[in-house]
Amino acid sequence: MIPDQTVDVNGCVFTHQDILAVVDAFYRRVETDALLKVPFGSVEDWPEHIAKLTHFWWTRFGGKSYMDVEYSPPLKHYRAGFNREFLSRWLSLFHQTLQEKLTPDQAKMWKTIADRMGEGLSLKNDMMIERFGPLRDTSIPI
Ligand code: HEM
Question: 1 pLDDT exceeds 70?
Fold first, then answer.
């Protein structure tokens, strides 16, 4: 069931609908972006991906979990061929979407969090490349 509560991130309030509006508009852009549609070619079910990522941000912002799902972003991104060029494009589209869909305060807060997560993913991805090599190989048993 989709929650009707709000989440409060350091004094900045988001409804579930705010989060869904951003995630939905963002991945519609990703789907047709010349650069990002390549790694995102692995996504077979976009509505499911959008639902999963909406839940991801909702729970990261402190909302109660309502889906039975586990996330393993470093591994998924390594397998998707994550790199800094993709990240820079991802963040640029994400920032544009935040500005369009949210108030300036909400957009600023979420941008700070997304930038930080991007940096964290990059560092973890560098460690995985060092360990397993720069492969986009889903057969690696890790
Ligand atoms: C701050 C930046 C990013 C955040 C916060 C983020 C977050 C996430 C999360 C939480 C998932 C779900 C992971 C799971 O199911 O365990 C995901 C999936 C995915 N991400 Fe990202 N992501 C970011 C950047 C990128 C970039 C730059 C790429 C380009 C390679 C990318 C490609 C993907 C793909 C292809 C999936 C789907 C993987 C699958 O379900 O097989 N992401 N992302």
Answer: no
Residue 81: domain span: 14-132
- CATH at residue 39: 1.10.490.10
Residue type, 10: N
- Cα dihedral sign for 54, 55, 61, 64? positive
CA distances from 75 to 31, 60, 132, 140 (A): 21, 18, 11, 11
User: How close is the Cα of 10 to the center of ligand 1, in Å?
Assistant: 25
**d(CA 7, ligand 1 centre) in Å:** 22
Q: Domain count of the chain?
A: 1
Residue whose CA is closest, atom 14 of ligand 1? 71
What residue owns the CA closest to ligand 1's atom 28? 82
Mean pLDDT of all residues in 80-107 = 97
- Whole-number pLDDT of residue 4: 72
pTM of the model: 0.93
Q: Which amino acid is at 119?
A: E
CA 57 – ligand 1 centroid, Å: 12
CA 132 to the chain's CA centroid = 23
